[in-house]
């Protein structure tokens, strides 16, 4: 609807999406007399807030970003600045018009198709039916909004975090009414507390400010202001143009430039321990770039609605943290995500381990439980509709023609094709066992053909291409012999990769973030991610999972593998590593991401996210600094940084040379 899914699920970020654009189904029909509004799913929050405010200062309790679409927002919950006062958007949905999997247009409500109505209020985005209109109950916008924003230097972070938690959990001390909305934003550079109060009588606001600031150091800055509801919402989202004309921007449906970010989210029902706060602040201080932790209250009115009233399950928590980081260049992405993961992990055990589905994160394991908890058991009978929906709207799903990807676990048989999205190129498994790429308008001239291992004899059909669970794409013959493969095996992380044919005439194996792992252009495992072109690693320059050093002649690469080993690859040996590090047998349940680095004692080592040592050279006794170099002939050499003749450790052609002393 509004295209704001964090993972781009409505914008084709996963293979074989069907995109239904609701941009023009964006009507907003207000009925002040009955205190309801009928809204098309493509309407965005900004214009909705604007229009409702023109009707006797009404509003709905929605989100804070004016470009979010009502469709996705309302189906997942709909959390915003009025959540403590009026609850979630799902708590105000009275009726929906939907198209179900059979193609019927239904009006559903608490009294008609109540199961579907229940499921679509909290677990509905892109699943059980397509919503074409929402009928929502209106609420009065607050008469006045008063807000304090106080900002501290990072040295006050721990104290402010503890004070925030004390006020959130010690209700006899804080005694907040639902008019108070207490938020905290933690960044590497500063920590900010925002206290918002709704309503004209501000005694409670003043009391809360005094309570908050009582035991804390003096903030770097404080700013208190009062506004009407609409100005408050618009100013918060920072969307005004140079003439301060946000209304014009919104009503013309203009959009902002896109930016790249990754977000994770957790709910908490008890305070984060002092130990975890220490861990969090330490990890926060170690990264660079823009990363923000937003603490938002999830109690108040939300908690007064019975847990089973809607599919939205998380009604007994105090606050949630949204962890978000941003980057400008693709090559920073992995590093930023690793930083985010470390911070998220540092408080994960203190949390409920549950999360809000509208802050969707494709890396969350066991996602049904994380997003729907005990409500999961009520959802499966409806899930059938999803599958039906796919077939109803895309009748050719059963055949691979018209499909550009071979998903993990799928097979392509002789004569079957994958077709590029522009339908001009196809990949076919031929009767002779070769995979071949053709242009549709020139089926006699293969653009690319797979090889067949010449050492094999007695090859016979029928052949099959399997995108295996271990992430290798393999062509087998009728006797089960491997006759060709992409050499992208990665068994410790099953089900990650898929294979696809692209408009650019290439066939690719791609990872879960769509990164290229293998391509028909080079025919070998790619070294594209990370520090390509960098052949030297100094102390402090960490290398993360999937990143690599590449020799100056680009013929050799050292890669941090998905299973925690480091491995050396040569470009001309068909993708098998020439050397791999081991995994210390004593470590248990290692966890991605992995980091490869020069240690303080001048060894090289691999650690997992939990800080467990996975592999280390353990030979150096050098004082000063060292440097790791990957040379053109494949030698990996650790030497003293200021003297390349002082060798600490080296490895060539699989043979390691240890230097006991330097
Ligand atoms: C900048 C930003 C700010 C945000 N702020 C908030 C906030 O303050 N509060 C909050 O609760 N959330 C917030 N979110 C999260 C937001 O609620 C979700 O991303 C929501 O799913 C977006 O809805 P959409 O229609 O814009 O997105 P879309 O990407 O269009 O849709 C999201 C999902 O819903 C499904 N869907 C959309 N419309 C329909 C429909 N008509 N029928 C069936 N399925 C449908 C899509 O298939 C997709 O899976 C924010 C997101 C962003 C990017």
UniProtKB/TrEMBL annotation:
GO terms for molecular function: FAD binding; oxidoreductase activity. Residues 403-522, 534-651 form the Bulb-type lectin domain. Keywords: FAD, Flavoprotein, Oxidoreductase. Belongs to the oxygen-dependent FAD-linked oxidoreductase family. Residues 1-141 form the FAD-binding PCMH-type domain. Its cofactor is FAD. SUPFAM superfamilies: alpha-D-mannose-specific plant lectins, FAD-binding/transporter-associated domain-like. It comes from the Eukaryota. InterPro entries: Bulb-type_lectin_dom, Bulb-type_lectin_dom_sf, FAD-bd_PCMH, FAD-bd_PCMH-like_sf, FAD-bd_PCMH_sub2, FAD-linked_Oxidoreductase, Oxid_FAD_bind_N. This is Bulb-type lectin domain-containing protein.
């Amino acid at each position: 609807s509004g295209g704001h899914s964090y993972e781009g699920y409505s914008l084709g970020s996963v293979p074989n999406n069907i995109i239904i654009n609701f941009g023009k189904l964006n009507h907003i029909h207000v009925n002040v007399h009955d205190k309801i509004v009928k809204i098309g799913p493509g309407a965005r929050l900004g214009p909705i807030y604007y229009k409702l405010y023109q009707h006797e200062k009404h509003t709905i309790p929605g989100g804070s970003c004016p470009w979010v679409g009502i469709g996705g927002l309302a189906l997942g919950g709909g959390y915003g600045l009025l959540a403590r006062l009026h609850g979630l958007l799902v708590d105000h949905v009275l009726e929906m018009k939907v198209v179900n999997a059979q193609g019927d247009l239904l009006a559903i409500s608490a009294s008609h198709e109540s199961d579907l109505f229940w499921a679509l209020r909290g677990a509905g985005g892109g699943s059980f039916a397509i919503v074409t209109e929402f009928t929502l109950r209106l609420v009065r916008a607050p008469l006045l909004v008063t807000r304090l924003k106080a900002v501290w230097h990072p040295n006050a972070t721990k104290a402010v975090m503890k004070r925030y938690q004390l006020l959130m959990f010690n209700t006899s001390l804080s005694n907040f009414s639902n008019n108070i909305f207490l938020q905290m934003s933690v960044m590497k550079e500063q920590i900010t507390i925002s206290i918002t109060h709704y309503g004209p009588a501000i005694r409670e606001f003043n009391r809360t400010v005094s309570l908050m600031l009582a035991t804390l150091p003096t903030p770097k800055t404080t700013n208190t202001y009062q506004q009407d509801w609409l100005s408050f919402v618009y100013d918060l989202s920072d969307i005004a143009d140079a003439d301060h004309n946000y209304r014009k921007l919104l009503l013309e449906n203009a959009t902002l430039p896109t930016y790249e970010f990754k977000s994770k989210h957790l709910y908490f029902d008890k305070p984060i321990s002092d130990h975890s706060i220490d861990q969090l602040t330490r990890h926060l201080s170690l990264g660079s770039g823009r990363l923000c932790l937003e603490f938002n209250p999830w109690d108040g009115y939300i908690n007064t609605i019975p847990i089973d009233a809607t599919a939205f399950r998380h009604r007994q928590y105090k606050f949630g943290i949204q962890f978000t980081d941003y980057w400008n260049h693709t090559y920073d992405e992995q590093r930023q995500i690793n930083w985010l993961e470390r911070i998220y992990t540092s408080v994960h055990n203190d949390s409920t381990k549950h999360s809000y589905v509208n802050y969707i994160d494709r890396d969350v394991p066991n996602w049904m439980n994380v997003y729907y908890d005990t409500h999961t058991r009520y959802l499966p009978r409806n899930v059938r509709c999803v599958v039906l929906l796919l077939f109803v709207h895309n009748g050719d799903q059963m055949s691979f023609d018209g499909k550009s990807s071979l998903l993990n676990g799928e097979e392509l048989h002789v004569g079957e094709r994958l077709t590029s999205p522009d339908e001009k190129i196809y990949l076919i498994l031929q009767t002779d066992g070769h995979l071949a790429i053709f242009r549709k308008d020139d089926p006699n001239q293969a653009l690319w053909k797979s090889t067949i291992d010449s050492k094999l004899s007695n090859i016979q059909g029928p052949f099959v291409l399997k995108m295996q669970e271990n992430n290798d794409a393999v062509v087998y013959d009728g006797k089960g012999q491997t006759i060709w493969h992409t050499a992208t095996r990665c068994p410790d992380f099953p089900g990650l990769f898929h294979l696809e044919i692209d408009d650019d005439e290439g066939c690719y194996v791609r990872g879960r973030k769509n990164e290229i792992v293998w391509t028909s252009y080079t025919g070998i495992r790619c070294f594209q991610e990370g520090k390509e072109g960098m052949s030297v690693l100094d102390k402090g320059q960490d290398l993360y999972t999937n990143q690599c050093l590449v020799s100056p002649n680009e013929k050799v690469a050292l890669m941090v593998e998905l299973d925690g080993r480091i491995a050396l690859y040569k470009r001309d040996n068909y993708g098998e590593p020439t050397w791999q590090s081991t995994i210390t047998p004593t470590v248990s349940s290692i966890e991605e991401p992995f980091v490869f680095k020069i240690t303080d004692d001048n060894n090289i080592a691999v650690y997992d996210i939990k800080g467990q040592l996975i592999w280390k050279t353990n030979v150096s006794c050098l004082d000063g600094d060292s440097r790791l170099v990957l040379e053109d002939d494949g030698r990996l050499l650790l030497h003293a940084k200021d003297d390349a003749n002082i060798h600490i450790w080296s490895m060539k052609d699989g043979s390691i040379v240890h230097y006991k002393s330097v």
